[in-house]
Design a protein that fits this description.
By secondary structure, this protein is of the alpha/beta class. Helix content is 51%, strand content 14%.
């Protein structure tokens, strides 16, 4: 199988290397050339520009976009469309808002080109070792890309969830759930830290992660953060977002909350988690809330390399 791949950031570069090792031939392009050189050294076919990438693929082409959600993804879709042929397939692997996915689908399919959305979970490590893929699109298109999905994912970690937009909608809600779970862990550890007892958090979190009801990857990542920095002294109490600036809250939690309110669903856990992130710059490092925020930020650093450092 041979695909085109555009976007070699933290996630994209690791996924391309994963695909290569799983026997998928990849033609890759990135806006800056150095990541292309890195993957070419491992056996990936490099492309100088998107025209060059398209020319190196046989019809029907499959091209995976792993770009920042929003304007950049729109920009590259607009650049690709005149270069593609009816029957070709574009995959959007970004954390795109599902309504944007539906809008793009109308544009793309009007040209006779196919479109799928894949929500990707697992962070850069998951992209390298096998991610969790939430897939939306037509059944026939899914059959075309199932080999690709299997190669990119961990065992039993991909599902075709429904029509176009279903993958990005599921990923959006996944991230909303993630917000609430991380907030609960941060609050719990802040309460433990403020008690009369002096807990070794590495020891306690390791215990939590062996047979308890709250056993989870997030607990494991919190434990790893405390192993690396027992006081989280190098982590800012500002809960940032992936590459977006220290005070900007990552969009998926806000999107999920907005939709919950539109649907008449009360979501107090998510509301609280979103509010904490929006207001995290107001919490001092020395306060209990600052420590809570540091725990959340440190977990984000473990799975997504998102932590804001001082």
């Amino acid at each position: 199988m041979k695909i085109g791949y555009i976007g070699l950031g933290r996630m994209g570069k690791n996924m391309v290397l994963r695909l290569l090792e799983q026997g998928i031939e990849v033609v890759a392009f990135n806006r800056s050339p150095d990541p292309v050189k890195e993957v070419v050294a491992k056996g990936v076919i490099g492309a100088e520009n998107i025209e060059n990438l398209v020319s190196k693929l046989d019809e029907p082409r499959i091209i995976w976009l792993m770009l920042p959600a929003g304007e950049v993804t729109d920009e590259y879709i607009e650049k690709l469309l005149p270069l593609l042929s009816p029957g070709d397939l574009i995959i959007d692997g970004a954390n795109s808002f599902y309504k944007d996915t539906l809008r793009r689908n109308s544009l793309i399919t009007s040209k006779g080109i196919h479109f799928m959305d894949i929500g990707v979970s697992g962070g850069p490590r998951g992209a390298r070792e096998g991610a969790c893929l939430m897939i939306g699109g037509g059944e026939e298109d899914f059959q075309k890309i199932e080999e690709l999905a299997r190669a990119a994912s961990a065992p039993h970690s991909y599902q075709h969830l429904g029509a176009i937009g279903a993958g990005h909608f599921a990923k959006m809600v996944h991230n909303g759930i993630e917000y609430g779970m991380m907030e609960a862990i941060g609050e719990g550890l802040a309460i433990l830290k403020g008690s009369d007892y002096r807990y070794d958090f590495v020891k306690l979190l390791d215990l939590y992660n062996h047979g308890s009801v709250v056993e989870s990857r997030l607990i494991g990542w919190a434990m790893e953060a405390f192993k690396e920095d027992a006081d989280l002294s190098d982590t800012s109490p500002i809960i940032g977002s992936g590459g977006a600036g220290k005070e900007k809250v990552k969009a998926e939690g806000d999107w999920t909350l907005q939709l919950a309110l539109e649907m008449g669903i009360s979501a107090p856990a998510l509301q609280g988690a979103v509010d904490v992130r929006h207001n995290s710059s107001k919490d001092s490092e020395e306060s209990a809330n600052g420590f809570r925020n540091k725990v959340i930020s440190a977990m984000r650093g473990q799975f997504g390399q998102h932590a804001v450092k001082k």
